[in-house]
Specification:
This protein has 254 residues and is an alpha/beta fold. Strand 9 and strand 10 form a beta hairpin. Helix 7 crosses helix 9. 36% of the residues are buried.
């Protein structure tokens, strides 16, 4: 089933100095339960697409649909995971992951039990009374994801959530986060500068041009693996082929 659809979206930023076109006729869709990555040159408008989908900004023209309804009419939750975990040091891990529920006045017994299940399932239950500074970078990102999942979003928007981590931690955390998203049967849209990350995690990769961003190509990603994970995908011969294809598309303007 089609969960998300962008239809002929255009956007420009207006300043006293003039108009800056950012998005130029962006159209794509996500099927429910799939993982999609968006790659493109720096400053081309990748994060702007996430802001549009989340409703933080509106397109100048074009429309965004969730399950066939316009964004303004949809009642489905959208989760947004940013580059930094934004955990509050004065709150415990448990109270951090409950924050969104508290803000929406939904921290009832049922939702608290669900959060407790997520903490247990993903190895953070022993640290529920710890402060964020007592966690590793990977554990902090897991806590940030659980905070996002606590609101039971239909769609997860991931804006370079691993960019602040060192390379080794980034590999293991992306594997962890991917498996959590798959296990929870969530639809995800990841913005990343890292081609390897996109190929290893995604079911399809959307390649954008320089600003104003247009969709240069949508590349389906498949690996002949009985149980695919990002780590396992990196060892497959197709991985290099996909990497080279995306690299070529990103640099075809040169």
């Amino acid at each position: 089933m089609e969960l998300l659809k962008l239809e002929h979206v255009f956007l420009s930023y207006h300043t006293p100095g003039g108009e800056t076109p950012v998005l130029d006729d962006i159209s794509f869709s996500l099927e429910q339960g799939t993982f999609t990555a968006v790659v493109g040159p720096s400053g081309c408008g990748k994060s702007t697409i996430l802001n549009l989908i989340s409703g933080l900004i509106r397109p100048e023209s074009g429309r965004v649909f969730i399950e066939g309804k316009s964004l303004s009419q949809s009642e489905l939750n959208i989760g947004y995971m940013l580059q930094k975990d934004h955990l509050f040091e004065w709150r415990t891990v448990e109270s951090n992951v409950l924050l969104g529920l508290e803000i929406q006045h939904k921290a009832d017994a049922k939702n608290r039990a669900r959060v407790d299940r997520l903490l247990k399932a993903y190895g953070l239950s022993p640290f529920k009374h710890s402060r964020p500074s007592q966690l590793s970078g990977g554990m902090r990102q897991r806590a940030a994801l659980i905070r996002t999942l606590a609101l039971d979003p239909a769609l997860l928007l991931l804006d370079e959530p691993f960019s602040a981590l060192d390379y080794q931690t980034r590999l293991s955390v992306s594997d962890d986060i991917w498996q959590i998203i798959r296990r929870e049967k969530k639809t995800a849209l990841l913005v990343t500068h890292d081609i390897s990350e996109a190929v290893s995690m995604a079911d399809q990769v959307i390649v954008l041009t320089r600003r104003p961003a247009r969709i240069r190509r949508v590349i389906p990603i498949t690996f002949k693996l009985p149980e695919r994970t990002p780590m396992a995908s990196r060892d497959m011969p197709e991985f290099k082929q996909y990497f080279n294809l995306i690299w070529k598309e990103l640099n075809s303007h040169e």
